[in-house]
Write a structure and sequence with these properties.
369 residues, alpha+beta, HSP40/DNAj peptide-binding domain, three-stranded mixed beta sheet, elongated
Length: 369
């Protein structure tokens, strides 16, 4: 018995500590060393030591004997490790701080719970993404039963207080375990936590209080929406439990590619061909944009792969509503088929010096006769 620590030392309390201080110390240490949650070395042994000390010091008679004779008061067997000496404690007290204050009467399965959110994909055109649109969507809605008005019963006389939990919604279950006789609070299996029993269920909703049906709703697609973005429709998800609200519906968008425009965020890119004469002499051309055609001035001597920017002709930002820009990439197209007249003109043109460019000058240095 020389190796047994003093019970007051085990609990970390003074010998004059009152019952409240003893219980507080025990609860703190039991939560710290409980083998199911503790990462402390030798947690199980320490937990048993704390239990042994508390069993003795929380009992006035055992504490008096211990104060007089020490561990010899019970022949060194103040604690039965085979079954925790039949010690009676509420396991909910131990875990209360880990699970939000522990279970409370009627707070188990009777708590209103929001239904799960769901997601659906919607494919839209490029134009619908740019300007926004309204589209019909068929969804399943969960509404209060129009027959029982949410009670789930055939009539108000068919609802009574649960006979098993007396309306609390929860019951206490006792069982013997390695750690002694434990008491755990759980949802009442009879009423499912509602605290009420329905003797005759509503024939329309079968006691659920909710009826589900399909409904066509109008979805407003915001201007500027892009692939991968989503919107939330509140209350169109899965139904809640115990009178809780339905979850939400998230619509994830897929924007179909456009045959002309390439989208880059709020900006778009369009590729426009130029003839050799347009590039050399300059021109004013019409360029398509989602917002209508605009005139673009092409300066003389424009090179292929030159990019021009049309401010505000892109896609509106879904949050700021400001339009992005349209970038016009011009490519000079070399003709593959020439008429006789065109061939003569190019032959005449070829006899002139068109190599007035620094790149041509650089190449000429390396060409030998």
């Amino acid at each position: 018995m020389a190796d047994k620590r003093d019970y007051y030392e085990v609990l970390g309390i003074d010998k004059n500590a009152d019952d409240a201080a003893i219980k507080k110390a025990y609860r703190t240490l039991a939560k710290k060393y409980h083998p199911d949650v503790s990462a402390e070395p030798d947690a199980e042994a320490k937990f048993k030591e704390v239990q042994e000390a508390y069993e003795v010091l929380s009992d006035a008679q055992k504490r008096s004997q211990y104060d007089r004779f020490g561990h010899a008061a019970n022949n060194g067997a103040g604690f039965n490790t085979s079954g925790f000496g039949g010690f009676d404690f509420d396991i909910n007290d131990i875990f209360s701080s880990f699970f939000g204050g522990g279970a409370r009467p009627g707070a188990g399965g009777s708590r209103r719970r929001k239904g799960q959110d769901i997601q659906r994909r919607m494919s839209i055109t490029f134009e619908e993404a740019v300007f926004g649109a309204k589209k019909k969507l068929r969804v399943t809605v969960h509404e209060e039963c129009h027959v029982c008005h949410g009670s789930g019963a055939h009539s108000k006389n068919d609802v009574k207080t649960c006979s098993r939990c007396n309306g609390r919604g929860s019951v206490v279950v006792e069982q013997q375990s390695f750690f002694g006789r434990t008491r755990t609070q759980t949802t009442c299996p009879t009423c499912g936590g509602s605290g009420k029993e329905i003797t005759k269920k509503c024939s329309n909703c079968n006691g659920e209080g909710i009826e589900s049906h399909n409904k066509d709703i109008e979805v407003t697609i915001p201007a500027g929406i892009d692939t991968g973005q989503q919107i939330r429709l509140e209350g169109y998800g899965n139904k809640g439990s115990n009178g809780g609200p339905s979850g939400d519906l998230y619509i994830l968008f897929d924007v179909k590619p456009h045959e002309l425009y390439e989208r880059h965020g709020d900006d778009i890119l369009v590729k426009i061909p130029l003839t050799i004469s347009q590039a050399a002499l300059g021109d004013t051309i019409k360029v398509p944009t989602p917002h209508g055609n605009v005139k673009l001035k092409i300066p003389p001597g424009t090179q292929s792969e030159t990019t021009f920017r049309l401010r505000g002709k892109g896609i509106p930002n879904v949050r700021t509503k400001r339009n992005g820009d349209e970038h016009v990439l011009v490519n000079v197209v070399t003709p593959t088929k020439l008429s006789k007249q065109q061939t003569k003109l190019f032959e005449q043109l070829s006899k002139t010096d068109l190599t007035n460019d620094t790149l041509f000058d650089k190449i000429k240095k390396f060409i030998t006769n």
